[in-house]
Amino acid sequence: MSRFHIATDDEIRAGRTTDVYFARTREVLKAKGRDRVRVAAEVTAGRIPGGEPWGVLCGVEEVARLFEGVPVYVYSMPEGSVFRPSDARGVREPVLLIEGAYYDFCALETPLLGLLCQESGVATRAANVRIAAGKKPVVAFGIRRMHPALAPALDRAAYIGGLDGVSSLKGAEAIGAKPMGTMPHALMVVFGDQVAAWRAFDEVMPPDVPRVALVDTYFDEKTEAVMAADALGDRLGAVRLDTPGSRRGDFAAIIREVRWELDLRGHDHVNIFISGGLDAEAVRALGEAGADAFGVGTYISGAPTVDFALDIVEVEGRPAAKRGKMGGRKQVWRCPRCIADIVQAYGRSMPRCPRCGGETEAMLRPLVRNGEIVAELPEPSRIRERVLDQIGRLSSKQRGEREPTK
């Protein structure tokens, strides 16, 4: 028996984490001889949390693993694709399609949605933070607020969404990189002296570990920042401000003070790293105030889930859908130049882009064919590059930002 309340890989793939009504549905279908009825079912998003106009699809690799060995066909947007709830005409935009006997895959609907909903929510929040930070580094610091079993998935999703690194050991393994982090206040408290703690860290850690001193344990932030710079000299790469909100005051003003005092004493090589309760707006504002890098935690790891749903749209090749949904298989056509989408009934010819008139490409591509994974499953770094490329080409209007006043 597991010591922690988590499901194993085998239990998830066997449908043990499904809702009971799917188990009962399988019983009914089997008893009434409907277990071989084939359907097509689409995954669409009703909305993006916060009313955002777009999201970042994440969790596709695990979906492929979930359906490996299951006699179904799965088509999906590539992981890391920007998606929208609907196209410009209001037609819901499918991110994934499953074809097969409903009996064979209905028990996997719950884990399928769980993977996509949570990880896409995290990746979407990370992408918004990436936009807010510009080119300044951002590290995922949020795993301590979530169940530890999810640390690799959450860190992977945050990285795919555009963050530069992750703090957890397992999360770093998941993205094929080294973990990134600084030091806790506990180190200073155990030593009872912040200078002694900084020097001990410097003496013990190998040269490839950046020297980032936490400078708000006992004294004023600018005082400790200068103390750290004087103690470590050129070896100090950055000071980290993690001041709790209750003692923070005007954080932008504190950052400007720290920058001034460091520069005044010839420590202009020392960067300012900010963490503690940050969201996208704080990252943008504090970056403008002079912060050089950020650690963002709960805002990303605790992101609201994307409201994905799986709905049957065809039964035995005939259009069939519940009210509120449009029947029939669909394809999403995207202009790679301006990221505009058109949703059309499956089998229609390729349309031209409604924005620029350019050629479009089909976004729903084979992922699993009769239980065999047939798509390439790229490394997280390549998926992240895809995300950065797409959000870099979104217009201000597409991002949901206000257009500049003329």
Total strands: 18
CATH architectural arrangement of the largest domain? Alpha-Beta Barrel
CATH C-level name of the largest domain: Alpha Beta
How much helicity do the residues have? 25-40%
Number of domains as seen in the coordinates: 2
Please give the radius of gyration in angstroms: 24 Å
The termini sit apart by: 65 Å
The CATH topology name of the largest domain reads nicotinate phosphoribosyltransferase
Task: Please state the structural category.
Answer: alpha/beta
User: Low-confidence runs (pLDDT<50, min 5 residues)?
Assistant: 402-406
Mean pLDDT: 94
What does this protein look like?
It contains 15 helices and 18 strands. It has 406 residues and is α/β, with parallel strands linked by helices. It has two domains: 9-120 and 306-399, nicotinate phosphoribosyltransferase, CATH 3.20.140.10; 132-301, Aldolase class I (TIM Barrel, Alpha-Beta Barrel), CATH 3.20.20. α5 (109-133) crosses α6. The N and C termini lie far apart (65 Å).
Short summary:
This protein is of the alpha/beta class.
Describe the protein's topology.
Blueprint: H1 9-13, H2 20-31, E1 38-45, E2 55-56, H3 60-67, E3 73-76, E4 82-83, E5 96-101, H4 102-105, H5 109-133, E6 138-140, H6 151-160, E7 165-166, H7 169-175, H8 185-191, H9 194-204, E8 212-214, H10 221-232, E9 238-241, H11 251-264, E10 271-275, H12 280-289, E11 293-296, H13 298-301, E12 308-315, E13 318-319, E14 330-334, E15 341-345, E16 361-362, E17 365-369, E18 372-373, H14 380-393, H15 396-399
Parallel strand pairs: 6-7, 6-11, 8-9, 9-10, 10-11
Antiparallel strand pairs: 1-5, 1-12, 2-4, 3-5, 3-17, 12-13, 14-15, 14-16, 17-18
Helix pairs in contact: 3-5, 5-6, 5-12, 6-7, 8-9, 9-10, 10-11
